[in-house]
Description:
Layout: E1 5-8, H1 13-24, E2 30-33, H2 41-51, H3 66-69, H4 78-87, E3 96-99, E4 102-105, E5 124-125, E6 131-133
Parallel strand pairs: 1-2
Antiparallel strand pairs: 1-3, 3-4, 5-6
Amino acid sequence: MTDITIYHNPACGTSRNTLALIRNSGAEPDVIEYLKTPPGKERLQQLLAAMGIPACELLRQKGTPYEELGLGDPKWTEDELVDFMVQHPILMNRPVVVTQLGAKLCRPSELVLDILPGEQKGAFSKEDGEAVVNAQGQRI
């Protein structure tokens, strides 16, 4: 049982880096590959409320039907935007992490450090080599 959940896409570098930062704190999160197991409408609404952001801030534009569906148009309500994410899970930006300290869209990946209950256990660099945590486990 874990108290950390990550809505993860293993094809996404930011998501992989976020997962690695969670594991660098000594935690093993509940990993939900949201493209295989999408959150339903109620769960998406709960996540948005926990993050304190509107649905439009969770929408991913790149590599999705965002433009095709005209989701940048202000005519869409919160409820309608959530419905689009339920119908097309690829529209949900990632990774979203939930801990006892809060919920956050972790872009960039080091934002996860703000809500991790445990400290980093050692140095960490992103896949591109950017150092994020030093050898003492402190954010750089």
